[in-house]
Amino acid sequence: MIKVGDPVLINPRHSLKFSRKIGFVEVILLDTLLNIGVSFDDTRQLYYFSADELITMEELDMWNRLGPVYCRYCGKDITGQFSFLCEDCEYPIYKEE
Ligand SMILES: [Zn+2]
């Protein structure tokens, strides 16, 4: 579980702007979807994320220990994307037939 004060990495899948930045959890709200307030610098400005957009240091360590990661579906190299599926396989674009 993510706690106030924890360092977190923003999942590059969810935010290009904050991709791979390390921030610190400042507040956790209970009643909204984007409920975790994270600050990135001394201004303490808060940006809100949902829990699945954040990678804890434990998760980061786990991904780093895995070494190269390949998409479980198509085999594409997706090392460093913190996912077991590439973007194409995770979010397929359905074509009308
Ligand atoms: Zn794939």
Main sheet summary: 5 strands, antiparallel
Count of β-strands: 5
Contiguous uncertain segments of 5+ residues: none
Which cofactor or ligand species appear? Answer: zinc ion
Distance between the termini: 43 Å
Q: What is the count of helical runs?
A: 2
Number of domains: 2
Strand order of the largest sheet: 4-3-2-1-5
Mean pLDDT over all positions: 90
Determine the structural class based on helices, strands and strand pairing.
alpha+beta
Strand content: 15-25%
Gross morphology is: globular
What helical percentage do the residues reach?
A: 10-25%
CATH secondary-structure class of the largest domain:
Mainly Beta
**Radius of gyration (Å):** 15 Å
Which series of helices and strands comes N to C? Answer: EEEEEHH
CATH topology of the largest domain: SH3 type barrels
In CATH, the architecture of the largest domain is Roll
Verbal overview:
It is a single chain. The protein is of the alpha+beta class and 97 residues long. It folds into two domains: 66 residues, SH3 type barrels (Roll); 31 residues, no CATH class. It has two helices and five strands; from the N terminus they run E-E-E-E-E-H-H. It has a five-stranded antiparallel beta sheet with strand order 4-3-2-1-5. Bound molecules: zinc ion. The site of zinc ion (ZN) has 8 residues, from helix 2.
